[in-house]
Amino acid sequence: MCGIVGFIGNKEIKNVLLSGLKELEYRGYDSAGLAVLQNGKIDIFKAVGKLKNLVDKTANYAPTGFAAGIAHTRWATHGKPTEINAHPHQGDRAFVVHNGIIENYMSLKETLIKSGAKFVSQTDTEVIAHLYDHFLRDLGEPKAAFARTIEAIEGAYAILLLDEAMDGAIFFAKKHSPLEIGKVGGEIYFASSDAPLVGICDSAIYLEDDSWGWANASEIAIFKDKEPQNTPAKPLPATQTGAQKEGFRFFMEKEIYEQSRVVGETIMGRVAGDSVRFDEIGEGFLDGVSALRLVACGTSYHAAMTACYLFERLAKIEARAEIASEFRYREAILREGELFIVISQSGETADTLEALKLAKKAGVLTLAICNVDNSSIVREAHTAILTRAGIEKGVASTKAFATQTMVLWLLALLIGDRRGAISADLMSREIMAIRKSALALQVREETHDLIRRMTKRYLYGHGFFYIGRDIFYPLALEGALKLKEISYLHAEGYPAGEMKHGPIALADAELFTIALMPRAILREKTRSNVEELIARDSTLLAISGEEFPLADDLLPIAASDHPMLEFYEMMVAIQLLALEIAVRLGNDVDMPRNLAKSVTVE
Ligand code: F6R
Questions:
Q1: pLDDT of residue 243
Q2: Contacts from 39-47 at CB under 8 Å and sequence distance 24+?
Q3: Which domains does the chain have, with CATH numbers?
Q4: Nearest residue CA, atom 11 of ligand 1?
Q5: Of the residues 27, 250, 349, which should be mutated to test ligand 1's pocket, given the most ligand atoms within 8 Å of the CB?
Q6: pLDDT of res. 240
Q7: What is the mean pLDDT of residues 318-344?
Q8: Catalytic pick from 109, 357, 399, 597?
Q9: How many CB atoms lie within 10 A of CB 432?
């Protein structure tokens, strides 16, 4: 959610900043901007919409020589996506880019206006620039002014600030929003995630919460509570993987096709013979764990819901899934013996991270299931299992979900085994199914073609209901979420057995029901629920491994006797369905309106 880059050095600074932003664009694309400080003068450019507009606007701008610069790609929180609200924001001497939310900006703004500051934007960020100028006038010294600015603001932030009178320097601050610094010779790079630094820097300093400081060609000074810090650098991956579309129309499409391979990688080294192991989970780690609480947002929450069925069924352990933003404020009671599992693709989702911190504070054991090593969530949790999906660029999550559910399935088996809840026979059948998952996730061209053709009948109408039972209920929620995100059509996921308790009132020929109809579990019960809808003339698309002549359309999958294999088959089908509907509607599948990857605001 929003992306930040910064640079101090002697390279072609515009290109460094723009290529850094390119790596982060999927995190926010309402507007983009950059500011370059050279010889006491700042050049600033902003453009509404995708990064390409900023690239066009700066086409004739080519600064050379030593300079410092900051840049930002925005997902709007305060104020519309206009040029005025685009970052960098400026005061008299200060130019600022910021990720996060300044919670006390209204009161700060009022005070600053009374003392003469002129605000032009509707953003919370602009207060940082005026505050800095204000303290600079008071204290007469930039470092002290920046320190006071950081003391005065509340909320979540990653901030870079240029002072027009301080050539070659960038001030920075971080709280609850990621920010890292890389150094190569005399060049210094800033970024809000690894991607802009990978391939340029070998390592990065991941700033801790409440850190602030400044950097110039000769030093990087980091402080926390006025105390100098010596935050060590950690290695970065050597190469950027998965960042190209490789012939696919969209990153999302490529990522759907990759699921089979990445799930294979998720399993690698974790299944040996008929047993499961995670190197990340030490011998005694699960001792004393008597219940599981899974907390996440969005698609990751759907993985958590799916896992609860698996944990209770396979490991015979109480498991409960919660939405992180709800968990945080409901004064939840955590019991001794609970393992608190957070699930996050990005590892930076603000609500999930804060829920994790609450759990740690309450003294319970925490485990992160995450796709991004070194992310805030991975660093915060007692231990972490990486999902190995590779970089996920499509804003609508696909392969992350596939790998999350696989890790959780494996974990259910591991816990079940340690608790003595799984017979050798069941374990062996589960492992066999796990080994077949990669095949179930393979996209069959004929299915994709069929979906492409079928979608022309599913563009209009007054809404979609995705229905399913058991693990197919969270999958129905996920199907509806995928469709909403990229097609902008209204869709709901519902437990199939619950339709008759109200929502069936909506049923008519213009209501599209996408029915997830497995063979392996609750087959007849699901069929009855679907027939109730057919009786009310709902237009029905059945996704099933079996014939179902009552359906208007059948999207065939390979039937299986294992529900998780049908789950994966259907997962691919609902992802492709959403993709092809969005394509027909002419939408930008990878960067859907109003969304951004990695939600670092609460
Ligand atoms: C949906 C989607 C979001 C994320 C949610 C949590 O396609 O991507 O719903 O799942 O914002 O993000 P992570 O998993 O990064 O914590």
A1: 59
A2: 39/167, 40/164, 40/165, 40/167, 41/164, 42/90, 42/95, 42/162, 42/164, 44/88, 44/90, 44/95, 46/83, 46/86, 46/87, 46/88, 47/83, 47/86
A3: 3-239 (3.60.20.10), 245-442 (3.40.50.10490), 444-596 (3.40.50.10490)
A4: 298
A5: 349
A6: 63
A7: 96
A8: 597
A9: 11
How far away, in angstroms, is 495 Cα from ligand 1 center?
21
Q: Is the CB of 58 under 6 A from ligand 1?
A: no
361 Cβ neighbours under 8 A, 6+ residues apart:
none
User: pLDDT band for position 1 (50/70/90)?
Assistant: low
Q: What is the pLDDT of residues 213-264, one digit of tens each?
A: 999 999 999 999 889 999 999 998 777 654 578 889 999 999 999 999 999 9
CB 14, CB 36: distance < 8 Å: yes
Pocket of ligand 1 contains residue 355 by CB under 6 Å = no
- Cα(574) to centroid of ligand 1, in Å? 17
299 CB near ligand 1 (under 6 Å): yes
- 505 Cβ partners below 8 Å, 6+ apart? none
Q: What does each C-alpha distance from 336 to 71, 365, 389 come to in angstroms?
A: 46, 9, 32
Cα–Cα dist 485/505, whole Å: 25
How confident is residue 44, by pLDDT bands cut at 50, 70 and 90? Answer: very high
The pLDDT mean for the chain works out to: 93
Amino acid sitting at position 300 = S
Ligand 1 centre and the CA of 323: distance in Å?
Answer: 11
Length of the chain: 602
Question: Pocket of ligand 1, candidates 346, 475, 579: which has the most ligand atoms within 8 Å of its Cβ, to mutate?
Answer: 346
Residue of 177, 251, 300 to mutate, ligand 1, most atoms within 8 A of C-beta: 300
Residue 201 annotated as catalytic: no
For residue 416, pLDDT beyond 90: yes
489, 483 in Cβ contact below 8 A? Answer: yes
How far, rounded to the nearest angstrom, does the alpha carbon of residue 503 sit from its chain's CA centroid? 31
Cα–ligand 1 centroid distance for 101 (angstroms)? 19
Q: Is the predicted pLDDT of residue 570 greater than 90, yes or no? A: yes
- Catalytic-residue membership of 597: yes
78-98 tens-digit pLDDT: 788 899 999 999 999 999 999
Q: Is the CB of 598 under 6 A from ligand 1?
A: yes
Which protein residue's CA is at the shortest distance from atom 3 of ligand 1? 298
